[in-house]
């Protein structure tokens, strides 16, 4: 399979490495030409995970990772385009990519915050009428951290990836291609269902808001270790229950992948399988300095992700008081109206759709 990975972040390196190791012809694209040159000069990506440490050579051919700073070349190469980037990048990247997509391609956004619609709409607005499947899931397929320009440590690989396709009519084709790359992909109803599987807006806002004092006081703080206490877990569970209630109000069925299963030792397996939380905290990679004004947990998971859950709840007539309260706190901390800035159905131009119109959009996509 021919795959392009778009971006140079933690998940991008992890995806590029895994796809090369699975035998795909992989191109890694980065906008930063100097970073591409540095990586080419270093000659490899060093990866460390539970299987040990090894090197992925940079270059052309089987078992090697090709590099590009040409977006056009990267898109032209690929059957599957993997974009494991923060949703804060979507609007600008979608505009750049929109005229380049071609029939039959599959675009994977892990996770997406309804980015599947953002990319599809940008493609249609550019005049591109290609049949492209935009897919998103509930989390990154990896818990990973870069340790320098050519080293990535992967603590955990996802074992279950609930994934929806936009437009839904392309689901069969898209899932067949996706499962070749990620056997852990599990098809679910549609792109909106997948957007409401996103774990980031449930995990991260309570952790950063309720750890705001330590985050500002200490040089570094691990919100997933000492920051995850009973009181915070209680808020996270209440928030997740609101997400699940919104899903049920829209008629989506189980599994809803309740976040409590991430921490459990028995019952239904969550997206990262058993013991993932312990592996995450044991790695020490999430002990970091989080700037509450600029970190992606605030600008992505809260501003975009939490606002999306609230807006869909309002549209569906399902209250989300905990989510709204956290958004209000975040807005007070940042001095910005994060809901007004958010990825809401209003800002996407979808808030006035009826239920039937929304179903039609999710199945067929947007018209030009």
How does this structure look, described?
The chain is of the alpha/beta class and 368 residues long. It has 2 domains: 2-195, NAD(P)-binding Rossmann-like Domain (Rossmann fold), CATH 3.40.50.720; 200-364, N-(1-d-carboxylethyl)-l-norvaline Dehydrogenase, domain 2, CATH 1.10.1040.10. 44% of the residues lie in helices and 18% in strands. It has helices spanning 10-21, 33-42, 71-77, 90-97, 115-125, 171-181, 191-195, 200-210, 212-217, 230-249, 260-263, 276-283, 296-316, 321-334, 338-341, 355-364; strands spanning 2-6, 25-29, 44-49, 52-58, 64-68, 80-82, 106-109, 133-137, 142-146, 151-157, 161-166, 185-187, 221-222, 287-288. A 12-stranded mixed β-sheet has the order 9-10-3-4-5-2-1-6-7-8-11-12, sandwiched between helices. Strand 11, helix 6 (171-181) and strand 12 form a beta-alpha-beta unit. Helix 4 (90-97) runs parallel beside helix 5, helix 8 crosses helix 13 and helix 13 (296-316) packs antiparallel against helix 14 (321-334). The longest helix is centred in the last third of the chain and has 21 residues, at 296-316. The model has no long low-confidence stretch (mean pLDDT 95).
